[in-house]
Model the fold of this input.
Amino acid sequence: MALQMGRFRNKQVAFWCIGADSIDVAVVRNAVGEPLIEACAGVDCLSVGRRPPHAAGIFDLAGLVSARGLGHVAALGPTLSQLASVEGGPQEPVAGRIRVAVPRADGLLCDADEAAATGIAESFRVLGYRLIALDCAACAELSLTAFLGDHTNADQSTPDPLAAVAVSPEFEETAVAMGERLAVPVGLALEHLGWLGDA
Done:
């Protein structure tokens, strides 16, 4: 999505995948030769009825991975955003939806739930966390696939995100356990830390 407010090359950044019922985060920085996951965590089964809806989970995980003072990039999870084709010319606006052209993917739009995007941005604002970009999960997975090229496992629906990064020893076990759940945070990191070059 094009709701980006900046890029960063040599800083620690928290990259989030925020879905309707789960949140995953990885703190990543550029290291020599590859991005480095310094910390990661995830949570399932969020309580409903909170306002803003994701603030409690974001707050808890940000503390767990020491991300409260960092810049943040968040992606709307797959149930809140998806890719759509632009075949047939310009798309008419749809109430309650945000549609944005996808970089490096001619003919594709990210179609996102506007209320979810607004709620997630509001969660970061209420917590006082600096949200630098709001993206979509499918776009992040495209970035991961583009970075890894053909180095994907045929029996996986998503490329192995740990093939694209190094992981700090303290979080290796957590990263392995999270597995494909790190695909979106790692894809975001590759894009926003400059590993894919300029669009």
Q: What stands out?
A: The CA atoms of residues 5 and 132 lie 5 Å apart. Strands lie at 3-4, 13-18, 22-31, 34-44, 71-76, 81-85, 97-101, 108-113, 130-136, 166-167. The chain has a mean pLDDT of 83.
